[in-house]
Automatic annotation (TrEMBL), chain A:
Stored PANTHER family: ABC TRANSPORTER PERMEASE PROTEIN MG189-RELATED (PTHR43744:SF12), ABC TRANSPORTER PERMEASE PROTEIN MG189-RELATED-RELATED (PTHR43744)
Xref: InterPro entries: MetI-like, MetI-like_sf
Keyword terms of this UniProt record: Cell membrane, Membrane, Transmembrane, Transmembrane helix, Transport
Protein name: Carbohydrate ABC transporter membrane protein 2 (CUT1 family)
Compartment(s) of residence: Cell membrane
TrEMBL record, chain B:
ABC transmembrane type-1 domain location: 95-310
Protein name, per record: Carbohydrate ABC transporter membrane protein 1 (CUT1 family)
Region (Disordered) residue spans: 1-23
Biased composition (Low complexity): 1-15
Localization: Cell membrane
């Protein structure tokens, strides 16, 4: 960069205003978690109080630690769902990028069309089909639909085409390595950076999902955080003392993802149009 | 429709790198790698779509007194469910509401995302401030829509809102954001808050891929930063803007989690506030799966027409199929 760039107070002000707007609710939930239920609606909004640990204890004790179960469920749904989805996407993307076979163009076009399918049309028939198999209200009802991600396959195809040289595959085959071994020991390590991005995308999508688990699950011990917190808020309407647990629960629920974001920042450089990541 | 036009030549590898096919390589291998994806795609995407289409054309016929299992039979309904869905007094208002919501959310969110990305890229502020702003603006992406709605929902309550405090301190009457007139804006704000950062990162990534020498020569020619942004940077990030627009459009038409979460705090949000909420009510509160299926098919078709129509309008493929 040359010295032609001057610092601009307007640019700085606009960026800081944007940051303030984005941080305001997060700042509020931090402060509000420290208030007792009487203070929540009476003291000045941004004035902290001293009840943070009481509120944590209330939340942790709510129906024998149901909240921690929701947290654990969310980790299972997002973690296992994203891991399996990434592996399936990697296999499919690799096949589409590195093999010639009949029907390849058709398969790829169908998967691309799948990216643009609005989830709305899927939710109710998915529920009905799983209900016929007796699988609604189980972990599988949320996990199975999360395993398929057309966008993940699309990204994985691009990563495989860019990161896996054909010569190395040929060399591996000449050495007598089977196709699955080649995939496991040569292809997957080469696609690693891109696959982390596919994993993160799917992880966040499942972590933030509301409609699918809301429709599929009836038993509140299977709920993820989003559905659980929604239920707590509904109880608060009749029982205002619940609001402190709702607010504290909201704070605790966003800590893991924020930590994940801050540590894996470099994987969040997404180029939607080219489908790539520039890590 | 651009999505279906893959040039057949591309599947053939360039001659120089043509793989020497060895006898040991089995033709079934790519299908084996694709199998799990195709099975799941069929089970959880294709089958539900077909099933929704089928249900939307069916209805239950009640015979006799309607008692006993045999008295209720499913028969073909033609387009009856569609007619019923379209003439439902709750349907059109929800469509208008989501239309207005989209007209607020998509331009505001993408406009802010573009503005912040350009400001970050122009690098005219201290690096530490740029980094702080980038992380802060991206942070809401880590907050699920349910939690975001919950946080903003409390902040909208007149007894809690610091903005109301500030307005009243100045001697004005603060508006109630959860009143009938303003609820739409209150929900739109949550979506803008949650989506700006992700789109900003997408656009910023595209900007960073441009060699700075391109701007240097424009600066030497005396172009202002504004002119560089308008004439060089925005055209360069246009493909990213098109894709963020399409994805935002699809997400907007399906708005569900935000109004569902705000409902306990705002009695101005009805059970059919958005088309998707109507689908949910019909399916689960009224047990009318057929109307729900017809409405979801209508929403899906509208989404497809809008997103493909837009892509056709700007003359773009949905995805970059070259690599």
């Amino acid at each position: 960069m040359t010295t032609t760039l001057r610092r601009s107070p307007i640019a700085t002000t606009l960026l800081l205003l944007g940051a303030a707007y984005c941080l305001l609710p997060v700042l509020w939930v931090l402060i509000a978690s420290s208030k007792s239920s009487a203070e929540l609606f009476s003291t000045f909004t941004l004035a902290p109080s001293t009840h943070l640990f009481d509120n944590f204890a209330d939340l942790a004790g709510y129906r024998d630690g149901l909240y921690w179960r929701w947290m654990g469920n969310t980790v299972v749904y997002a973690g296992a769902g994203a891991a399996v989805s990434t592996l399936i996407s990697a296999m499919a993307g690799y096949a589409l990028a590195k093999f010639d076979f009949r029907g390849k163009a058709t398969v790829f076009n169908i998967i691309l069309a799948g990216v643009l399918v609005p989830g709305v049309i899927l939710a109710i028939p998915q529920y009905l089909l799983l209900a016929k198999l007796g699988m609604t209200n189980t972990y599988w009802a949320v996990l199975l639909p999360s395993f398929i991600s057309p966008y993940g396959i699309y990204l994985a195809r691009i990563f495989a085409a860019a990161a896996v040289p054909t010569e190395i595959l040929e060399a591996s085959r000449i050495d007598g390595s089977g196709e699955w071994r080649t995939f496991g020991t040569v292809v997957l390590p080469m696609m690693r950076t891109g696959l982390v991005t596919v994993f993160l995308f799917q992880f966040v999508a499942i972590w933030n999902n509301f409609m699918l688990p809301y429709i599929m699950l009836g038993d509140d011990r299977l709920y993820p955080l989003t559905v659980g917190l929604n239920g707590l808020l509904n109880q608060g309407a009749n029982q205002p003392s619940m609001y402190t647990s709702v607010v504290t629960g909201a704070l605790v629920s966003i800590i893991p993802l924020i930590a994940l974001f801050l540590t894996l920042q470099r994987y969040w450089q997404v180029d939607l149009a080219a489908g790539g990541v520039k890590a | 429709m651009s999505l279906t036009t893959t040039a057949p030549t591309r599947t053939a590898a360039p001659p120089a790198a043509a793989p020497r096919r060895r006898a040991g390589r089995k033709a079934g291998t790519p299908y084996a790698f694709l199998a799990p994806a195709l099975i799941l795609f069929t089970a959880f995407l294709a089958a539900p779509i077909v099933y929704a289409g089928y249900l939307s054309l069916r209805k239950v016929k009640v015979s006799g007194l309607g008692l006993g299992a045999k008295s209720r039979t499913e028969i073909w309904a033609g387009f009856e469910n569609y007619a019923r869905s379209l003439s439902d007094p709750d349907f059109l208002p929800s469509v208008y509401r989501v239309g207005a919501y989209g007209l607020i959310v998509v331009p505001a969110m993408l406009g802010l995302a573009l503005l912040f990305a350009l400001l970050l890229d122009a690098n005219r502020t201290r690096e530490s401030i740029g980094k702080f702003a980038r992380i802060s603006i991206f942070l809401p992406y880590a907050v699920p829509a349910v939690v975001a709605s919950l946080l903003w929902g409390f902040l909208y309550l007149p007894r809690v809102s610091p903005i109301n405090d500030a307005i009243e301190a100045l001697g004005f009457t603060a508006p109630n954001l959860l009143s009938t007139d303003l609820t739409l804006w209150a929900v739109a704000n949550i979506a803008v808050w949650g989506g700006t950062g992700f789109n900003m990162i997408v656009i910023y990534t595209a900007l960073r891929a441009v060699p700075t020498s391109l701007y240097e020569s424009a600066r030497i020619d005396g172009a202002s930063e504004l002119a560089i942004a308008w004439r060089i940077k925005i055209p360069i990030v246009m493909p990213s803007l098109v894709m963020t627009f399409v994805f935002s459009l699809i997400a907007t038409l399906q708005v569900f989690a935000e109004p569902m979460t705000l409902r306990p705090l705002a009695n101005t949000i009805s059970t059919t506030w958005t088309p998707l909420m109507k689908v949910y009510r019909d399916a689960f509160a009224r047990n009318d799966l057929y109307a729900a299926a017809a409405t979801s098919v209508i929403i899906a078709l509208a989404t497809f027409i809008l997103s493909f129509g837009f892509l056709k309008l700007v003359g773009r493929r949905a995805f970059n199929q070259e690599d």
